[in-house]
Amino acid sequence: MQKTIDDIMSRTIFNEAQLELLSVMASVKDDAELMALKHAISEFFARRADEELEKLWQSGEWNEQTLQDLKTTHYRTPYQQ
Questions:
Q1: Which distant-in-sequence residues (6+ apart) come within 8 Å of 63 by Cβ?
Q2: Cα separations (Å) of 70 from 9, 59, 63, 64, 73?
Q3: Is 20 within 8 Å of 29 (Cβ atoms)?
Q4: CB distance 62 to 53 below 8 Å
Q5: Contact call for residues 30 and 42 (beta carbons, < 8 A)
Q6: What is the pLDDT along the chain (81 residues), one digit of tens a residue?
Q7: Please, what is the Cα angle at 32 between 27 and 38, to 5 degrees?
Q8: What is the pTM of this model?
């Protein structure tokens, strides 16, 4: 039996953060507001990432050598030929 989008959506349970974002997004009136909201969300996650990197630096888990190593490390999954 194939699930329809209505079946899936009727069982979707949103957490508190998702509900809050849906509420905020309901008030977005135009593309400019949408872009501003996207920017604010991006800034939020960038700030969180920066804070986590600062913790790694302060704890000594990351240092100048770690940054140098990252310049030459390749994390991409190799493609099969």
A1: 57
A2: 41, 18, 11, 10, 5
A3: no
A4: yes
A5: no
A6: 466 767 766 667 888 998 899 999 999 999 999 999 999 999 999 999 999 999 999 999 999 999 899 888 887 777 776
A7: 75
A8: 0.65
Map tokens 């960038």 to a residue.
46
d(CA 62, CA 57): 5
Q: Which residues contact 28 (CB under 8 A, 6 or more apart)?
A: 34, 37
DSSP one-letter string for 46-62: HHHHHHHHHHHHHHTSS
Tokens of 36: 């501003």
